[in-house]
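Sample pair:
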Amino acid sequence: MTINTVLLLILALTVASGLSFFHYYYKARSTGKITRVLAFLRFLSIFGILVLLINPIVSRSTYETNKPPLALVVDNSASIADLKADKTAKEVYGKLVENDQLQEKFEVQSYAFDADFRPISNSNDLNFKGKASQLDKVGSNVNAIHKNLPYTTVLLSDGNQTSGSDFVFGFQADHKVFPLIVGDTTQYMDLRIAQVNVNKYAFHKNQFPVEVFLNYTGTQPMNAVFSIQSGNSILVKENVQFSADKRAQIVNALLPANAVGLQIYTATISSKSSEKNTYNNSKKFAVEIIDQKTEVALISDMPHPDLGAIKRSIESNAQRKVTVLKPNQISDLGKYNVLILYQPNARFKSVFETNKNLGLNTFIITGNATDFGLLNQYQTLVDCNMSNQKENYLAQFNSDFNVFAVENIGFENFPPLENPFGNVALKDGTSVLLESRVQGIETGEPLWVFSDQKGKRGALLLGENIWKWRAHSYVEQKSFEKFDQFLDKTIQFLASNDGRKSLIVNHERFYNSGDNIEITAQYFNKNYELDEKARLTISLTNTQTKQRKQYDLVRSSNSFKVNLDGLTPGKYAFNVKELNSNSTYSGSFEVLDFDIEKQFVNADVTKLKQLANHTQGTAYVPNQVDVLIKKLVADPAYKTIQKEVVKKSALIDWKLLLLIITGLFAAEWFIRKYNGML
């Protein structure tokens, strides 16, 4: 309480005494017993009101005892049960958490981890069925809980980590960690497929690369056989050698993509020696083989060397087929995936009109015979205002082009293309791959442009004689390969057309057992705007057991999603439906049988000892739990801290004082009334 507050309280005491004396002694001139009681009540009432107005701050000191925190963290992953250590882990946990000496010295807090980190109340919360071991999250979570406090961690784990960064350095070096190693610590000979790297998609009739990491635990030289098979067919088979100094090998292979659809492969490593754990000797992986076959209609009303060059270039990819047609020879335009309109004139009007309804992606090539008036009516990439004068246009590569990945194959050195002279203005949504140059001067006008607007794609080349580009590329490269690959990318861009779908669903074609299985969807209204009020459901069916379940998709930031974790291995078909419009999407995926927690044959003693050294702790095994308890109890570094807690409160917050003042005024009034003094 400050000096000013004390002076104000003395002044309040004086004022209250003076007013009481003035009213009952000086003014009334009475000295009876009743007067003294009334004067005292008046004094207390006035003094109480003045004290409330002064509102002094009252401080109270209490003392609390803070024990040092001891975080007891238990590995709840399935690898503990697979290593036959679940019973031991529960017994050790119970012995630690029920020890009276530890409870007296520490504030013992129990946690469990697998894919998540969470508090536990007793051993019944441990089931050792976790599908992952994210050990790297333990250190950061414990530190966040005990921020700015000295704490100690006892970690019951086998040290086997299935995901995340190196867990050793996830723990702070200035907070001791005592690993209690559960699981078999004996080192057994073990061959293991550690990781398979492969793209999720490959094109039909191509080859795709596979990279496989192999690990060996043991001391003797080991000859093993590695293979990859699909069904009953062995696609790769080779011998691999290991030793105490050579414990890891990488195998690279090219696999043929001979069948369309989702293909399941099995990578296997084996030897003549017996192993304790053979589950980790094989690993399944899947690749979706995409049929890239594209039917291209090359429509022209005139003979030209460009037609043959374009056809040969595109058909260098066995998945492309080009049919050369005249505008009046087309019977069914809908059977083609891509249209190439070469120098369209008035006879192309029926083609343009038919494609209005079909919406096929179109590549237009202009030249001296092109009807630009007709072209301006039917294409949305550029506006052309051309004269009758011919001009030669050289190419200038635009390095900022990002519609798809393309390299500069020497466009600036290619021969010029012929096209009528004039002005070309870009429309919105158009990207320029090549700009034009006339007599070496950059015009800033487009030569080759692309467009991708809400599912509709297009391309426009302003100039004929592209056959000269292909011939020049052959002279420079001694091969047509680079030019043909470039033109193939153009066709691939045009052939990839999702269209304007109202319901778009994203999912993988396969998942490993234990993966996060999440399916997301977006629903668009007729203006192609994301409809946030859509009502989406998903019906999921196991194609083998025929078991069917239905879920609602939950709204997220810019989509709807559903989480399907916990599905058993097998094939699943699903149907997503928007209830307001009845729009539907059907799909399927497969859950592969792969349990990452069964990849381990023993505890990772080396890693847990490294953690102990990093934090100045010590590693123990279960039969040393009493030694650990004695060390923790006897260590003088862990001290109970007595802390003074000062609580300050304003007197005006005391509701009791207000009730007392009210009671004093009431008592004074009642006594005066009873004695006829009012």
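The domain at 190-290 is CATH 2.60.40.10 (Immunoglobulin-like).
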